[in-house]
Design brief:
heterodimer; A: 246 residues; alpha/beta; 4-stranded parallel sheet; B: 241 residues
């Protein structure tokens, strides 16, 4: 029964800058993960070919978007898109969030910070990355795990899809690719699914149970971290240890 | 995939979008997904924002077509009407030919919804503030309906629509019907404030049809994509057409 005297985001309103021209999977999975009363405010960014100019334009719109979401009453603003967040250098993200938060008067986080916190909470050390893109993205992921997260990259699995086709991937792909990744790299203690814009959340619990590993996905980490920062401490079952135990 | 029945692309005018996606998934059946791109309309309705949003709509529509959308909706009645209601069919046809998928506008969706509901005398509630009353009268007349009354409470900024209580729509509907009892259709304008759960109660209590911008967009997008499910809980439009 709808309570007509309260707003949709009566527990928390989370602003998120989406690093994609259009977004499809993210809001679906967001509303599956978060409890009732937590809403999502979105801005989509015109991320295209990931050139320096393209990423800088998205960075600029992200900042503008954060200010706008704060004015609109967000309880927390999350800057999405790891490549955008670290475009000014791996060591600039904390400073960016601090300064921006001071300026707009609302707490600011980022997808990068959420994932750092998630890896830490899970106690991850050796990470195999599964991403939906072409293998030419493997070196970028390998570098991010090693240099940004400070963890040991044990391998990458590239799904071979594209940004435009992410919405066409069925949930079974993440499960298949996760199994293939851990089979190829059995020394991994964590499977990391990069990019929050494809269907991954239904693979988290099955992979954790099947292989006894930790599973962290970008969307899961962002939703978890956002809720905790906004004071929503609910333990959410069904989407992995991160949401159910931390 | 999630959108195994249909994937709906929607160009969402507000720079920040919150309520639309939430209500979309309350209405749409399982297997239907929303692809959303936010545009440039901020708290002020300016020609620059409308023009910028229109241009970004076209770019977004191309991206959505490329990503496999079954239908693309150009949102924003004011944005669409800024191109001339009479030009919208051609704009959609040209864009559809270019991107290879069907294209509709929120304006056409609302017009068709009201025609099917048999609306003649329409009263509108909106949240943009009293100084937008005349614009809403004009928009309704441009769509071919008699605009018997328009009300707006104290102005809510567009980007603050997420702060509006869910009960506000019901209160405004009662006020409209009391002021203009000849009303046969109540229109909740703008797809970005909470209206979905007021539709059925207003139709039952006041004996009118209800058309909300959000409801009409989702309904028309579903029907255009070939999803003919009759949906309970969100008014006659979804239940009967």
């Amino acid at each position: 029964m709808t309570d007509m005297n309260r707003i949709r985001g009566y527990r928390a309103r989370i602003g998120y800058t989406v690093a994609a021209v259009t977004t499809e999977v993210y809001p679906i999975d967001w509303y599956r993960v978060v409890p009732d009363g937590v809403s999502l405010m979105m801005i989509t960014l015109p991320l295209g070919n990931r050139s320096k100019e393209d990423v800088e334009n998205c960075y600029r719109i992200s900042i503008e978007g954060a200010k706008t979401m704060a004015k609109a009453g967000a309880d927390l603003v999350v800057l999405g898109g790891l490549p955008i967040n670290i475009s000014k250098g791996d060591d600039t993200v904390d400073g960016l969030m601090e300064n921006l938060s001071r300026e707009i008067g609302v707490r600011v986080s980022s997808s990068a910070a959420a994932q750092v916190a998630a890896f830490r909470a899970l106690g991850s050390k050796k990470v195999v990355t599964v991403h939906p893109f072409l293998p030419d993205q493997n070196p970028r992921h390998e570098r991010t795990i090693r240099e940004f997260f400070g963890l040991t990259p044990v391998g990458e699995y590239a799904g071979g899809s594209s940004l435009a086709a992410l919405g066409t991937l069925p949930p079974a792909r993440a499960l298949e690719w996760g199994r293939a990744a851990i089979a190829a790299h059995p020394d991994a203690d964590t499977i990391y699914f990069g990019c929050p814009h494809w269907s991954v959340i239904d693979a988290i619990a099955p992979l954790e149970q099947e292989f006894g590993v930790r599973v962290m996905t970008s969307l899961q980490a962002i939703a978890w971290h956002s809720m905790r920062l906004a004071g929503v401490d609910d333990r959410v079952p069904g989407y992995g240890r991160l949401l159910s135990e931390h | 995939m999630y959108g195994h029945r249909a994937r709906i692309g929607y160009c969402s005018p507000p720079f920040v979008t919150e309520v639309f996606a939430y209500e979309f998934y309350k209405m749409a059946p399982a297997g239907v997904t929303l692809m959303i791109t936010t545009l440039e309309v901020g708290n002020e309705y300016t020609k620059q924002a409308f023009d910028g949003s229109y241009e970004r709509s076209l770019a977004a529509a191309r991206a959505m077509g490329d990503a496999g959308a079954d239908v693309v909706v150009l949102g924003g009645n004011p944005v669409n009407q800024s191109r001339g209601v009479e030009n919208l069919s051609k704009i959609c046809a040209d864009l559809a030919a270019e991107i290879g998928t069907r294209v509709i506008t929120s304006t056409q969706a609302q017009k068709e919804a009201m025609e099917l509901l048999g609306a003649k005398k329409v009263a509108t509630a909106h949240m943009a503030g009293p100084h937008h009353v005349e614009r809403h009268h004009e928009q309704m007349r441009n769509m071919g309906f008699e605009s018997v009354g328009v009300i707006s409470p104290t102005r809510h900024k567009l980007l603050h629509y997420g702060k509006i209580d869910e009960g506000e729509a019901m209160k405004l509907a009662r006020e409209l019907k009391a002021k203009w009892p000849e009303t046969d259709c109540i229109h909740f304008a703008s797809a970005h404030w909470p209206t979905a759960f007021a539709i059925d109660p207003v139709e039952r209590e006041l004996g009118v049809s209800v058309m909300t911008s959000q409801q009409a967009i989702v309904w028309k997008a579903l029907r255009t994509a070939g999803i003919d499910d009759r949906i309970e809980g969100f008014g006659r439009l979804f239940r009967e057409f």
